[in-house]
Amino acid sequence: MLRKGVILIIIFSFIGANSINVLCDPIKDGDFQKSLEKEKFTDTQTLYNDYIDITVYEAWEMLNSTEDGKQILIDVRRWDEYSTERIKPPFPEDWPRWFPYELTSGGPGPIKNEGILLKIFMSIYKDKEIIIYCRTSSRTSIVAQILVDNGFQGIVYNMLGGINEWKAAGFPTVEGLFPFF
User: Fold this and answer.
1) For range 106-133, the mean pLDDT
2) Rounded to an integer, what distance in angstroms lies between the CA atom of residue 129 and that of residue 104?
3) Which helix (H) or strand (E) holds 117?
4) pTM
């Protein structure tokens, strides 16, 4: 029980206090908006089971654009990976939120165990556009499918190649735990 409490504190510290207000928002019909947003993806993007694969170049372009709405970066790697290095978005307020697929190598995490923490995540980010990434994108396709299978009401972009491809393309990262952005 103590472990779950510590995990919740860590998660809420990374997703931000303002995100808690989303839990209190009235339920909206996100299906119509979601279908409209899916029509926006380009020929280079691939739609799978209600999530969209994008390249790191498309992710960078989306994060730089203010015309297409706001996408939220979600890092699904373990804590040791997140605290060592993260994606540095173009705008400081867009820092990546940490929500791990697994807490330890192979061990269940908030998303992998599909329990209450996954439901909290889905409540906070419902009707939002999220870009999920990990080290190489092997975990993100699993995470994307878990979100879709559990009825996520936002748009999920799966960033192919993960942070490794992001760095190979020359996009910025932040090393160490501080600063957060």
Assistant:
1) 80
2) 27
3) helix 116-125
4) 0.71
- The DSSP bridge partners found for residue 28 are none
Instruction: Indicate the pLDDT class of residue 22, thresholds 50, 70 and 90.
Output: very low
Q: Which residue is associated with the tokens 């993960």?
A: 162
Who wins on pLDDT, 7 or 123? 123
- The token pair at 17 is 């206090």
| 86 pLDDT higher than 80 | yes
DSSP bridge pairs for 75: 98, 133
Q: Which two tokens stand for residue 112?
A: 């992998």
Backbone torsion region of residue 149, taken as left when φ is above 0, otherwise alpha when ψ lies between -120 and 50, otherwise beta: alpha
Print burial letters for 52-79: b (CB count within 10 Å at least 16), e (below 16). Answer: bbbbbebbbebbeeeeeeebbbbbbbbe
Between the CA of residue 13 and those of 7, 20, 97, 164, what are the distances in Å?
A: 10, 11, 9, 25
Q: What spatial distance separates the first Cα and last Cα of the chain, rounded to whole Å?
A: 31
Set out the domains of the chain in order of their start, with CATH numbers.
2-175 (3.40.250.10)
Please answer whether residues 143 and 132 qualify as being in contact, where contact means their C-beta atoms are separated by less than 8 angstroms. Answer: yes
